[in-house]
Amino acid sequence: MAALGGAVTVALCGHWEHDGPCRWEHFTRPEVVDAAVVVTVYFDAAAHEEQQVRERVREALAAGSLVGPDGTTTAWQLAPN
Q1: How many domains does the chain have?
Q2: How far apart are alpha carbons 9 and 28 in whole angstroms?
Q3: Residue 31, exposed/middle/buried by CB under 10 A (0-12, 13-18, 19+)?
Q4: Tens digit of each residue's pLDDT (9 = 90 or more) over 28-81
C-alpha cells in the first residue's frame, strides 16, 4: 500500500525523494475496506491550485502502477466513483 502514497508524492513533488518541503503538503491514507483499498489523500493547496492538485492525484492513482526504489512494480486498479 505504500506505493499508493509514493504515486501521489511523485505526482505532486516529482519524486518520493526530493529536496525541501513538498510544494503541496499532503498525506495519503490507504485503508482496507471489505475487499478493496480506499485511499484518502489530504493536501494543503491554495484555492486556485486545488483543481490542479486533485487532477494530479487522480491521474497518479489512475495510472495503476509504480516502480518502487527496489525495482518492484506494484499495480492496482482504480475503481470508478
Answers
A1: 1
A2: 9
A3: exposed
A4: 999 999 989 999 999 999 999 999 999 999 999 999 999 999 999 999 998 886
Q: How far apart are CA 81 and CA 70, in angstroms?
A: 32
Domain membership flag for residue 53: yes
32 lies in some domain? yes
Q: Tens of pLDDT along 5-40?
A: 999 999 999 999 989 999 999 999 999 999 899 999
Q: 36 Cβ partners below 8 Å, 6+ apart?
A: 79
Q: What is the grid cell recorded at 3?
A: 506505493
Q: Is residue 79 part of a domain?
A: no
pTM equals 0.91
Cα–Cα dist 34/17, whole Å:
32
